[in-house]
Write a structure and sequence with these properties.
Pfam families: Peptidase_M28. GO terms for molecular function: metalloexopeptidase activity. This is M28 family peptidase. With about 350 residues, the protein is α/β, with parallel strands linked by helices. It has 9 helices and 8 strands. Strands 1-2-4-3-5-8-6-7 form an 8-stranded mixed β-sheet, with helices on both faces. Helix 7 links the parallel strand 6 and strand 7. The chain is globular.
Length: about 350
């Protein structure tokens, strides 16, 4: 009987130690699918129908509609309990009119972040541009539902998913900056201001940038295979980032990655045309997520009724999973190219 009691106690101690060890590992033992499920087509649709509505007047940099856009974004972060890295309650990185060289009035980036639990000084940046091209000369409003309303609402849902993990005690090991930049349509001004003038977090501590610009539609090339996404830049600076991206996709989503626009000879030069480039030029590994162009690009017909919301959900979850892996792996990814 004593022997049985001893074995029982020993087994209990082993199990207890194992449980304690599992808890101490934090996010390493957590299935992020539990949080990815909070990214839903319905929530993305609800937000985008507001963000890409006529009330926002095409979100032209420095204009009243763009001011509505930044307040919409701020309100989401306030309501979900996600803080600003600038100051308590201040989510706006103000950019003076002089910086835009006559192209726009004063404007703002919007910044929110979740502090890392173990490596808070290492930063993963998830970005999208909040602006669009405004109102055409004939009075038509360019709502920019795909460009880049889709990227904007994707970040808001991704941020909410990370915050749900925080609330369950599974916050990311590294800090995550949710960066909504202005002035992209007139020359990548907002992202350049962040990287070149006022990087709130040192660029040397910035591990990677995942940039989202148009992920809500399907281009003509993929009409018969909608489960795709163009990836640009993933292998330009870090072989490891590219391999992680591929592995995460195969594990969780298994969509087709199209690297056509990643070619150094791409005549469209998309690698240089969105906000990730201002990070890449500073030797920070990037991935640019993109669905390709379509007939409604930069036209009043880029409206929220044409977005594929189930696909937007899937693509947003993919980016969340990739950010989760980058934020929680033991070692920072290595830059092995330049």
């Amino acid at each position: 009987m004593k022997k049985l009691l001893f074995l029982f106690c020993a087994a209990f101690i082993i199990i207890a130690c194992g449980t304690s060890q599992s808890k101490s590992n934090g996010t390493a033992t957590v299935d992020p699918s539990d949080y990815a499920k909070s990214i839903t087509a319905d929530e993305l649709k609800t937000m985008l129908y507001t963000y890409a509505s006529d009330d926002f007047e095409g979100r032209k940099t420095g204009e009243p509609g763009q001011k509505k856009a930044i307040n919409f974004i701020k309100e989401h972060y306030v309501n979900t309990g996600i803080q600003s890295p600038i100051a308590e309650g201040d989510y706006f990185q103000e950019i003076p009119a002089s910086y835009f060289n006559g192209k726009a009035k004063a404007s703002e980036n919007v910044l929110a972040y979740i502090k890392g639990s173990e490596k808070p000084n290492e930063i993963i940046v998830i970005s999208a541009h909040l602006d669009h091209i405004g109102i055409s000369g004939n009075g038509d409003i360019n709502n920019g539902a795909d460009d880049d309303g889709s990227g904007t609402v994707a970040i808001l849902e991704i941020a909410e998913a990370f915050q749900k993990a925080v609330e369950k005690g599974h916050g990311p090991k590294r800090s995550i900056l949710f960066l909504h930049v202005t002035g992209e349509e007139i020359g990548l001004f907002g992202s350049r201001y962040y990287t070149d003038v006022d990087p709130v977090f040192p660029l040397a501590n910035t591990v990677a940038n995942l940039n989202i610009d148009m992920i809500g539609r399907v281009d003509k090339k993929h009409e018969n295979n909608e489960n795709y996404l163009y990836l640009i830049g993933s292998d330009k600076l870090s072989t490891e980032l590219h391999n992680i991206s591929e592995a995460v996709n195969k594990k969780y989503i298994n969509m087709t990655f199209d690297y056509t626009y990643n070619s150094d000879n791409d005549p469209n030069r998309f690698y240089y045309r969105s906000d990730h480039y201002n990070f890449a030029k500073n030797n920070i590994p990037v991935i640019f997520y993109f669905n390709g162009t379509h007939d409604d690009y930069h036209r009043p017909s880029d409206t929220p009724d044409k977005i594929h919301y189930d696909l937007l959900e899937t693509r947003s979850r993919l980016i969340f999973y990739t950010a989760w892996e980058l934020a929680n792996r033991e070692e920072r990814i290595v830059v092995d190219k330049n």
